[in-house]
């Protein structure tokens, strides 16, 4: 038997992820360790868990945006809902779920949505350095975007330790772009006068 009091099992026996998730409380993480989907034990403060935790935080912020968005923004709510599903799939790859892949279709779908929003913003919108905030929904998207950027940094750092599909890094990078575009569009739609950063000279 393992000497780890938080994970007692016969030596060499693999624990099914389905078995571990049969209850919300597995009691195997009381001593600061948890399991990846392939059964590998890691510290809860390990870099891989920092990535997973930040992905969870990112998806949760998106959930708040979806909850506060009005019916006028239904297409964008649907897109954000799909992104949440993409992040769940992406997380499964990070935790090494057997047989799970992150497909290029998700990246293409996100890029298409970003291009559609960008076409609505007009010329030279990207030449302005805008202060975060504006409408309540745009402010929430600003926070969501910064969490996405942090997640991207952590994922890149993790990729220096182990193989992370480049598609995942690309997706997170495009996602932060999409979130910024969406906050700009929402402020424009709501006729909010954006405040710009101006450097003193």
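Sequence proposed for the structure above (201 residues):
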């Amino acid at each position: 038997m393992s000497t780890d009091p938080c994970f007692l099992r016969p030596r060499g026996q693999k624990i099914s992820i389905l078995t571990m998730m049969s209850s919300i409380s597995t009691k195997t993480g009381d001593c600061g360790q948890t399991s990846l989907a392939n059964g590998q034990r890691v510290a809860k403060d390990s870099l891989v868990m920092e990535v997973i935790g930040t992905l969870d935080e990112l998806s949760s912020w998106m959930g708040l945006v979806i909850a506060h968005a009005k019916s006028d923004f239904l297409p964008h709510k649907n897109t954000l809902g799909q992104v949440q599903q993409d992040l769940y799939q992406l997380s499964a790859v990070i935790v090494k779920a057997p047989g799970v892949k992150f497909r290029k279709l998700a990246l293409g779908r996100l890029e298409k949505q970003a291009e559609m929003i960008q076409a609505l913003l007009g010329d030279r919108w990207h030449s302005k350095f805008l202060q975060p905030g504006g409408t309540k929904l745009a402010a929430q998207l600003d926070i969501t975007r910064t969490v996405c950027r942090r997640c991207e940094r952590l994922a890149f750092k993790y990729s220096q330790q182990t193989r992370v599909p480049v598609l995942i890094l690309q997706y997170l990078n495009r996602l932060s772009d999409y979130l910024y575009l969406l906050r700009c569009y929402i402020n424009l739609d709501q006729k909010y006068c954006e405040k710009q950063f101006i450097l003193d000279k």
